[in-house]
Amino acid sequence: MSDRRRITGPESALPLVFAPTPNNQSTTKSPQEKTNSGIRNFFIKTGIVSNCNGSCFLEVDNTTIIVSVYGAKPIRGSSVTSASFSVMTKVSNNLEELSNFTSSDLSHSKEEKEEQKLAKEDEYVTTNQIGKTQLSLVEQKLSTYIQTAFLPSILLEKYPKSSIEVFINILTNDSHTNSSLLSLITWCANCTSLALVDSGIELKDMVSTGIAKLTDDQTVVIDPSYSNEGRKTVGGQEVRAVASYMSVTDTVVGLMIESEEGVNGEMIEKVIDGCNTMAREIRSNMNGFLVSTM
Amino acid sequence: MSVEIPRVVVPGQPIVPEFDTASHSADHTITQARKYLSGPGTTLSKIPTGPNEEVNAIVATLKGKTVISPKSKDKTSSASKDELPVNEFLVSVVNHQTPRVPLPKEGDYVLCRVMKLTSRQAFVEILSVDNQSSILADSGVGSNGSLGMAGGTSLVANVSSGSVAGTSVFSQAVGATNASLGAHPADLGESFRGLIRVQDIRATERDKTQVVESFMPGDIVRAEVINIGDGASYYLSTAKNELGVVLSRSHGGRGDMLYPLDYETMVSVSGHIEKRKVAKPF
Amino acid sequence: MSEEFQLKPVSFSPEVLARIAPELSLQRHLSVGVRPCLRSFQEFKSVQINPQLDSINRYTSNQGISSKSTVLGSSNIKCGNTIIFCTITGGFIETLLPNDEADENVKEYEKIYENSEKQENNQQDDSLSNFRTVYPIIEIERGRTGAPTDEEMIISQTLHDTLLNSKILPKESLEIDLGLKTVDKDNNEIIIYPNESKDIDSSLFQFPRKYSFVLYASIQVFSRSGPILDAAWLALMIALKSTKLPCVYFDEKNSNLLNDISSLSSKKSVKTGVVNAKSGSQIICDPTKSHDLKLNNSDLYTTTIGLIELDKDFSVEIEDVENNEDFKALSVDKHTRNEGEPILLCDIEGDAEENAIGSRVVVIPDINTEDDDNLVSVTIIGGGSKVTKQSIQNSIGLAKLRSKNLQQQS
């Protein structure tokens, strides 16, 4: 069924298939140096989009994100006493690799997962998401996470009969291994937080997000970067989590945990503590930034 | 003990507790109790102060500067000899860099554009509140492919069609309008709808007013919000001297600008007269 | 009423006036010689061409993510406040005629056909079928979701058509010269390309079918403040200039009869846009080798000029302004044009301008030729103020200046 509203090119065109880069030639950028606190340096700029109410641009390593907030905008046809809040994520068309790796995260059987992981060693990269009309799985997950995390923080009752919409645009992303979804969530959430403040919408509190990983030897690493790791071998007790907090009341508003093996309560506690540490640090960074722009 | 009040705040930052004491005497005895009320840009919520303690505090909801202004209160009413006088203060957060998102509330004056007339009411689209800033950050101009061509409006011809997404009334080419009806994608530049009932147009002679002698499609009208209404539209009224048509063009929008003559007449430069419910210009 | 009667409309804040009465707002500004966006009439928006986005290109980046990227070219420009990202990706398609030498009959037929065609027209090389274009999809962020708006569709189509008609992309640039992946005498896998060295036997490179590339462009626009055709075209041109096409080879090892057929029937899910291509496909792109995309004259830039007539009814007389130095610095063009001629405004920006300006002239001049008057494309849209011959000439002049300027910048 052709999409008649977009110019999609000839029907019989096939995607390009790229052979995997031979190892001796692949250049991986060394991960950015971390600051003393263990978090990578990130660059923020608010107010860059002029046709929306608030916006923020965030860049960390190779990932760049623009978040725009439109609201409060009128919505018709529903009798509501408070605003509706929605989040829409869009990953740039050229970042197909995100959807490539996600399918492995979401497959349920262990054998399937192993197989896909090994297959990825020898991975052929294909292209073409031209003209897609539905959200990919990554986009759905990201949107759901952000919406759940920010909903409690917005004073919706102050905006009756309107809607607040957040648009997240991921322009470039560094997605070498699994769990870069969690890293993406972290930075999208932090960027969204700043965009919401920039828009002048009243918030109960700001939401800040941290990501941490519990390694095999039970040490907690915050803001883990993956560029130099290559593929992790299957097995090993690694737990990764991203958690969002409303800092002043220390309330958790969003949480996502990943692990190949099972987890127990103690591990979850440790990794969440790591997230909390990073979230606090980021919150104080954001505070400093906001006060300096006044 | 009084709390130090931060000057610049970010959302979520507590400003002051709800109740506080102050001292005006030299020996630091407490002479005054203060109650803080939450104004624009703040909210009252519970802040944890200890492992199991919570305190009500005024918390900022915006990024900006704090402003604390005393509310006048009759001091004699509550104070007996043993009680401390309680003074009320209003706490707000202002930010002049970010324009506040304006939403119409009861009692606000709004500027709106007349879309459609029936014998009983006028349907309008609300464009801005209190003459300050437009409601929508992006008005949607240009999105439906029209070039914003100047010329007569075809709104009169399209009275039954209802919405015309976002393009300026004075610059509607008929072709473009028709192209944007029907299968137009999700609304861009969608704005709040308002309703002015015939009995709310004027304060006097309310039963003799005719909608078509008060407004024409395309007019810009200043009106007051009398009710937030239901999901469909706000209820507006122009029943005051300073409310009514402020900008209009003759011949349904195709002609010259009209200027106010008196409370019910507007005139164009060429001398052409039309009836409107005119707002008193200031 | 005892007050003095004034024929003056009430006053509004400039932002509100631009929304409710854009023509009035614009006329008032123009009558004192300024524009709502505070640029002078013939001042274009400043353009910044940032190479930052190079990091996602597959073949030109020196950063780590290139190994998985499928992006062949990209650009990132900032035009005034508007930010535009453009990425070029590719696909391949089988070209219709089989390789000449493979089919004797076809060769014969072509000989006959060639002769008759040569007699017809000498402009064979110039006909449109010898050129290709890119398939663009543009997304302008305006706070809405759903199907593309009219504007997006119109711009995509305009970019597509203009690129084709300006003959920038010859079809030879997209033709694929297939290499071959085979084993050498030591049984190592090697990939060889034709024309790489002299001793390679060119008979190795006989393939049953010919292929060529198909290029797609994805353009994202943020912070739109006026018509963006000019900026979108610029982004596309810069992306194309930076595009590297992969070297493609034929993988013998994966040769299953079935694969040939099945790879041609890869299903493309319309919803998710993901193509279920088998990795057993035989046509593979080299992960590291690439070559430039050859373009014909790629220094073509489009310029849109808005035309508006000054309406005396709306003119504002402000006496103090005439003598105010600061104001004079802003209002450059007040007296430099003839009466009755429309004012030319460059780079339409803002609600008031975009709503009120009904006539436009869009020009793509060719600045690389000797002939000073060569124009690649001219579009004149009327309906607003009258379009006079003088204004068309002036617009073309402005477009040339702008193009030369951009050529130096990029």
Automatic annotation (TrEMBL), chain A:
Superkingdom of source: Eukaryota
Biased composition (Polar residues): 21-36
InterPro entries assigned to the protein according to its UniProt record, in alphabetical order: ExoRNase_PH_dom1, PNPase/RNase_PH_dom_sf, Ribosomal_Su5_D2-typ_SF, RNase_PH
GO MF terms, alphabetically ordered: RNA binding
UniProtKB keywords: Cytoplasm, Exosome, Nucleus, RNA-binding, rRNA processing
A biological process from GO: exonucleolytic trimming to generate mature 3'-end of 5.8S rRNA from tricistronic rRNA transcript (SSU-rRNA, 5.8S rRNA, LSU-rRNA)
GO cellular-component term (any): nucleolus
Location (main, coarse): cytoplasm
Location relative to the cell: Cytoplasm; Nucleus
Domain Exoribonuclease phosphorolytic positions: 39-202
Xref: Gene3D superfamilies: GHMP Kinase, N-terminal domain (3.30.230.70)
Segments of this protein annotated with the region Disordered: 1-36
This protein's record includes keyword rRNA processing: yes
Keyword Zinc-finger: no
Family to which this protein belongs: Belongs to the RNase PH family.
Record-linked PANTHER family: EXOSOME COMPLEX COMPONENT (PTHR11953), EXOSOME COMPLEX COMPONENT MTR3 (PTHR11953:SF2)
Protein name, per record: Exosome non-catalytic core subunit
Provenance organism: Saccharomycopsis crataegensis
TrEMBL record, chain B:
UniProt signal peptide: none
Subcellular location: Nucleus, Nucleolus
Source taxonomy: Eukaryota, Fungi, Dikarya, Ascomycota, Saccharomycotina
One BP annotation, GO: RNA processing
A molecular function (GO) term: RNA binding
Record-level GO cellular component terms: cytoplasm; nuclear exosome (RNase complex); nucleolus
A Pfam cross-reference name: EXOSC1
Residues annotated as domain Exosome complex component CSL4 C-terminal: 103-227
Stored InterPro entries: Csl4, EXOSC1_C, NA-bd_OB-fold
Main subcellular localisation: nucleus
Keywords, alphabetical: Cytoplasm, Exosome
Protein name per the record: Exosome non-catalytic core subunit
TrEMBL record, chain C:
Domain of life, source organism: Eukaryota
Major subcellular location class: cytoplasm
GO cellular component terms given for this protein: cytoplasmic exosome (RNase complex); nuclear exosome (RNase complex); nucleolus
Keywords: Coiled coil, Cytoplasm, Exosome, Nucleus, RNA-binding, rRNA processing
Gene Ontology molecular-function annotations: mRNA 3'-UTR AU-rich region binding
Family stated for the protein in its record: Belongs to the RNase PH family.
Protein's name in the database: Ribosomal RNA-processing protein 43
Organism: Saccharomycopsis crataegensis
